[in-house]
Amino acid sequence: MLEVSRNTVVNAYERLFAEGFIETRIGDGTYVAQLHALSKPMQPGESFGIEPQLHLGFRLPAASLFNQHRIHEGAPKAFRIGMPAIDLFPFDDWARLQSRFWRREPVDHMGYGHPAGEPQLRELIAQYLRHARGLKCDPSQIVITLGAQQAIMICSALLLHPEDEVVIENPCYWAAAGAFSCLGVKMNGIAVDNDGLQTSQLQRIPKARLAYVSPSCQYPTGATLSMARRLELLKWAEEKKSWIIEDDYDGEYRYSGTPLTPLAAIDQSNRVLYIGSFSKVMYPGLRLGYLVAPKQLVDQFLLMRTMSTRQPPMNDQMAMALFLSEGHFQKHSRRMRRAALLRRDALLQAWNQHLSHIGEMQQVSSGLHVTIRLANFVTEQRLIAQALSEGIEITPLSASWLPGSSEAQTGRYGLVLGFACVKVPDILRAVETLKYAWAQR
Amino acid sequence: MLEVSRNTVVNAYERLFAEGFIETRIGDGTYVAQLHALSKPMQPGESFGIEPQLHLGFRLPAASLFNQHRIHEGAPKAFRIGMPAIDLFPFDDWARLQSRFWRREPVDHMGYGHPAGEPQLRELIAQYLRHARGLKCDPSQIVITLGAQQAIMICSALLLHPEDEVVIENPCYWAAAGAFSCLGVKMNGIAVDNDGLQTSQLQRIPKARLAYVSPSCQYPTGATLSMARRLELLKWAEEKKSWIIEDDYDGEYRYSGTPLTPLAAIDQSNRVLYIGSFSKVMYPGLRLGYLVAPKQLVDQFLLMRTMSTRQPPMNDQMAMALFLSEGHFQKHSRRMRRAALLRRDALLQAWNQHLSHIGEMQQVSSGLHVTIRLANFVTEQRLIAQALSEGIEITPLSASWLPGSSEAQTGRYGLVLGFACVKVPDILRAVETLKYAWAQR
What we know:
The structure is a homodimer.
Chain A (H helix, E strand, L loop, with lengths): L5 H14 L2 E4 L3 E4 L29 H11 L18 H13 L15 H15 L8 E4 L1 H13 L5 E6 L3 H10 L2 E8 L2 E2 L10 E6 L13 H14 L2 E5 L15 H4 L5 E6 L11 E4 L5 H12 L4 H12 L2 H27 L14 E6 L2 H13 L5 E2 L16 E6 L5 H14 L4
Parallel strand pairs in A: 4-5, 4-7, 7-8, 8-9
Antiparallel strand pairs in A: 1-2, 3-10, 5-6, 9-10, 11-13, 12-13
């Protein structure tokens, strides 16, 4: 009757039945099911019942969030922050490792693995930390994370309750403040000077249960936490039974002497959660970092990690393990440091030759960025806008302050420049461009 | 005097100075810095100030968590759950895609990218959902996640407050219950029958702000949510202004007719958060899933995602995008479904021939696992222990119930068997083994 094949009809009935649009009554026949009418599309402006608390994350100045996202995408440009010399990435070695690994048909690694990450990689990271950082830890303490950010979030979510208070460097790393603000905890900013966090001010904040610090290279000031203050901070954590998150996101980039001993290496009372990352030696999009957890917290971390992402992706972990075990990493990380040093010097020299009137550039002894202080907000925003209109990315220092910071009204404005991610000629060209862009008002 | 070279001494001083162990006074000399004494190692048994609330995750029977972790590691074995036929993974294609991608030196993708994930992949997923699921969505609604688990956690963390209540299928997927319990929300279990979640019981829970369901193949019962109940559930969410998390973790595995229309495709009022995953067609260790967020929630999701992991790892996303765009995925997913069907039938036939006295095995029309009900806990645990001693992994149904479930005292015990991850001969051998293992008491 319908001039379609029997199969078509059978399939149609099967689908209708599966979807529940028809019902069959044994020995009787097939009937259209009684269904609720579909609800009408909703009206624009109708409320969705989202609570204001959802917006906790927005406690952080939306500007800084937005700004961070905008300037980080696409190919590297002068003077992007947080980007290493990825033009030196060993693409061929990496491609070879990946395809070799896959041609071995690694079925043992393709299922649900250990929530802390691939055992081989955790072994290698423990070795690396022992040799490169003097940080002795057991592989069982290492949790592979999605970059430093997941480590910060897991630590905070596990150790803090919404009513808790934390200590954070001010100015601070925007994404750490973002993680805390998502959890709704109270952030207490403590000023940073040339010796890092002013530990003497810890007494101001008796209720603090956790302190977030970046001792080897504070973001964005670049200050190194002095040994005296490292010990003061540890003493504080021990006495208050508080926790310390030590974010060592770019500790490999030290240009004079060897990297400093991490807090975690001198901590005697298991209060320090050490966070490292491969983002700055490999590439940020790798999203591979690690957390060294105090032994007494490991189980809780694994539970939290399991429930938030189960385990880290396997492929990059295995490639990273091969990259480490075959000695590529050590070689590459030396190469990256040399390149960053070269590019730092090129910027320093060109800047002070052509742009010293904006502000004298100081030599930084670690990290991938340098900061120029400015007198006021208007100047900061104008210079950054003019630079951006020429395709040059500069990050405003003003975006790094906690909302409502009273201290450091002076020196809260400035330019943060990443010097590592483009070649020397591009750095010189960018300085040249800025010279003209900033000449016209 | 020390019989070491001048450089050695200079380096030693430099290091001591950098570490802050010595201080230099201009025009005066170098002095040992005054430092706090290092604190002594802490005593065993000393408290670390961990609150009981840290153990929220343990509200879920620790047994089921532990059990899940143990049996999921290493090479596939009969009858592991949640594992597809990874022996059919196209290793060479995958290896070729990876190395081709890397040899192109993809510097544009190696930095900090979009927090929602790689735009190309999100485009392709939107297309896939339109064709394979009849789910029309804009790529801007798609957030790439670390498997379904991160999607579940982000949704819950964003939409729920600790005092909130949720509805969850009972028996349930342990890791979803785990995510909710980590957040401390009250879980209300609703029983599942052959038509899926008993939506009539939703009225029992007036305060529920969210319902977590797996409509196309409920875990662990394998039930499909009928169309009548899909509409009831949507009506409930619309009236109560509640949310629905639709976990479509293995919707590709439908053995009769085409996959059912997801809730998200018939939702008229933007209350459904649709979760999909590549774990079951590719491999679980890939940790690549996606969330289709209602338009009005996208911004909050991106903020939450940024603060919890910034962005998903780039490498696997790009490989997956190539795998999809070059048509490998569609081919592979058909192949995986055929294999799973073949293995399902082999198990069904062998089981009912040799082990029907344990319990008759029913034919499942979707998913990767089948459930055999048992009379009591003792039998369940004995059979599973005997199987495990022969190296055969079987998951206890009893581990899938919410703590303190009153309903369904009958049929709460049983065996959950995954049939997809080993070849037919291995399935037959395993059934053979069980036959003898279970014969002796």
